[in-house]
Each structure stands twice: as C-alpha cells, then as structure tokens.
Amino acid sequence: MLARKGLLPDGFLLTRLAEDAAQPSRIRPKSQRARFITKNGSCNVAHKNIREQTTDAIVASQGRFLQDVFTTMVDLKWQHSLLIFTSAFLCSWMLFAMVWWLLAFAHGDLEPRDPNEPGPVPCVTSIHSFTSAFLFSIEVQVTIGFGGRMVTEECPLAIIVLIIQNILGLIINAIMLGCVFMKTAQANRRAETLIFSRNAVIAPRNGRPTFMFRVGDLRKSMIISATIQLQVIRRTVTAEGEVIPVCQLDIQVENPLRSNGIFLVSPLIISHTIDRGSPLYEVSAQSLATEDLEIIVILEGVVETTGITMQARTSYTPEEILWGRRFVSIMTEEDARYSVDYSKFGNTVPVRMPALSAKELDQTRGVQDSGPHEGKPQGWGLVRAGRGGYRRGGGRACDDAASKPWYVTTEKEEEKKGQKKTVKLEEIGREIEEETMEDMSD
After folding, report:
1. How far is C-alpha 178 from the chain's CA centre?
2. Low-confidence ranges of the chain (pLDDT < 70)
3. What is the largest CA-CA distance in the chain?
4. What DSSP line would sit under 92-118, residue for residue?
C-alpha cells in the first residue's frame, strides 16, 4: 500500500530480500566482530564507570547532566519525557492549590456562613475546600476560566500568587513545546529515508581496484550541500608498542569536483580508488576476511524543507565487502524522464578481477614501493602510462629489459664503416667513459 501510494518507490520493500538472494553465500567467522557503528547509524558504544565510588564524584557527574537540562530532556525517550511533563504539571497544580487553600483559610473564607446574610468579601470566590482550590489552580495555570471562581481585590497577596503561577505555567509550557519540537525535528528522523546498500564491493574501475557502495534518497525533497565522508576504524600498534584500539583514518572519496560534495538527486555509487595512499592498499581477496577493520560512511547535509542539518551513518565490515563484484544499473530513461528501480538497489554481478591486493598488482606491473627510487618503474620505459604502469616514449613495452631495471649499465655497439665504437654509458646521472681494448693494444 505504501509503495502504491507513492510514499515508497515500487518494489523497495523487497530490496533487502533481493539483495540477500543475489549475493553468494559467504562463510562468516564464529566470533562476530563488534561494530563501532551499526547498520542503522547508531553508535555501538557503552559508557561505563561514569560515576565513581565517592560521593563527590557522583554529585559532580549528575550535575553535568543537570546543567544541560534541555539537551538531557531531548535525549530522553518519549515515555520518560511525557512522564516528566505530566509530573511537572501535577506538582505545580497541587503546590498552588495548597497556596490558594492557605490564603482562603487565613482570610476566613472557609468558615461556614449563612448564604442569606452578607459576609466579608473573600480573596477568591467559590473556594470552600481543597478540591475547589485545586480546580481554581488548574483554571489559573491553563487559563481556562470557567467563571465560577475568581480573584477579588480583597487580598493583594492573592494577586501576587496569581502572577507567579501564570509565569511558572508559561515556563513549563515553553520547555515542553521546545522539547516536543526538537524531538520530532531531530536530524536522524530525516535520515530514515536515506538508504545505503547492504554490501559494499571492490571491483576494477579505470584499471584500478575501487571500493564502492551505493546511497540513495527516497524523498523528493533534496539534501542541500550534501557531503560524504569515509573513515576506516581499525586496531593499530605504533612503533613504540602502543596499542590504539580505535584508530580513525580518512579515506579520499573520488569526485571530479575535487571535493566530497555530492548531488543526491538520484542513487549514486560512491567510489574510492585503492592506491598507494589508501588504507586498503595491502588488502587482498584472501586477507579481506581476516582484516580487523570497519569502514564508516557519514553523509551530512541540510534538509531543503526545514533547513535543519542532518546526518546519516552506516558502516561496512569485512564480511559485508564483496570482492570482484559491481552494482547493477538501476536508472533508465522512460517517457523523457529518468526512472529508478529500487528493487535492484543492492544487487551486484560478478566481474573478472584478480585476487591480488593493489600493492601486489603494482609490484607485478613494475612499480617499486620502497627504497630510494620509490615510484620509479622496473622493466618499463620512462614515460608513465596511466596510474598502474609505465611505457616507453615510443609506445612499446620493454621486451628483454623487463628482467632488470632500466638504469642498469649497458653497452651499445655499432658497426660503423667496419670499426667498433664504444658509446658513453649512463649510470644514475653520472657518465663513465671506457676505452676500447683495441686502442689499448695500439
């Protein structure tokens, strides 16, 4: 029904089922890794031992939350917030009902009188018991005013209590309305319609291994100034032996605009080229299952309709990264409009890709990764051919020189007019001239 009414694209409710059916079965390790960010974007972090055993520390920790009471109220669950607001109204009504009853008792308004005989003017009319004082307190604070009870000019103190109760009631109403608005307009509510593919893939793109995932927005209202950020969370050991359990490393997102900004008008495939500066440079198909890492995706932007900043998050563990697969196309052009088939949102197809890591691929292509000549070719020409390798200036690959570096000293002989001529040799920037054995014999 939701899909037919247009609230959700047709077929999206079966997207997850289609993704699971299309993906190959993979053996998962027995011990499930702990996630830093869950698939729905919530942080999987438990804060423990915030309160120390001493009394002073307990008071200090509670005071930190009470100093920011508005944020604390917004962070509470709905049932807790409604319970607090209901208790605040009841307590204020009961408190001022007691005050009105005491004023009437002190002024003598509660004493029985003959209705036919005129008596003194009461502070508040028609208050004969605590129940009537409680009803008057509700009428004052919520400004109902049924007309049966009202404050007279007899008691100036009653006028002051009336002013105080009105001010307190306005403060409680303002806090309640503010909390309700902030809880209903939170940024994570808008993120509910931002979807990420269940799995990420690693496939070749433009001759390089590329990490990719898909993101889409179900609403027609756009996300203004949308930016996306990738981070790798992994356990790292420093050179000094310090163990960093959660080390965050940024991943560069490929974008022709040279920024992380995206135009999320239709589902996009976000890619990251695995090059020498990538944290995934040494990850291969075999080592991927044993890697202790988690790739976090953070999408931020401004909601077009409300102007509120929102953030959507998800993460991918090694079990959710598919090697040698790519996403299928889900956008077609129909009746001069672009149509998106969300039922294939997370579907992938296999592609031909070696199981080697990007580092191993670079080594097989002849790119050194260490030593004083880092980045220079081995067994290739002098002119770089794209990202992966090098070629000669004439466009031909080196044949017999592939087994040794191009800078190794070689001797080139020419037969010219029946005489043997020795040419100058170049060895890493310096020239060495050798005399021929024929000249020495002469």
Report:
1. 26
2. 1-33, 50-63, 65-66, 114-115, 187-188, 255-259, 367-442
3. 155
4. HHHHHHHHHHHHHHHHTTTS---TTS-
Are the CB atoms for 232 and 251 separated by under 8 Å? yes
Half-sphere exposure of 83 (CA within 13 A, CB side): 5
Going through 238-372 in order, the beta strands assigned E by DSSP cover 243-251, 261-262, 268-273, 293-303, 309-316, 321-323, 325-327, 331-334, 337-340, 348-350
Count of CB atoms situated within 10 Å of the CB of 166: 13
Q: SS3 of 259, please?
A: coil
Q: Which residues contact 28 (CB under 8 A, 6 or more apart)?
A: 319
Please name the helix (run of DSSP H) or strand (run of DSSP E) that holds residue 420, with its range, or none: strand 419-422
Q: For residues 241 and 315, is the Cβ–Cβ distance under 8 A?
A: no
**3-state SS string over 401-435?**
HHHCCCCCCCCCEEEECCEEEECCEEECCEEECCC
CA 30 vs CA 39, 184, 289: distances in Å: 20, 40, 12
| Residue 117 in tokens | 């005989």
C-alpha 198/C-alpha 28 separation (Å) is 16
Token reading at 13? 């409710």
Q: What is the pLDDT of residue 322?
A: 94
Per-residue burial over 123-149, b if 16 or more Cβ lie within 10 Å, else e, is bbbebeebebbbbbbbbbbeeeeeeeb
Report the alpha-carbon distance of residue 332 to residue 93 in Å, rounded: 63
Q: What is the pTM assigned to this prediction?
A: 0.61
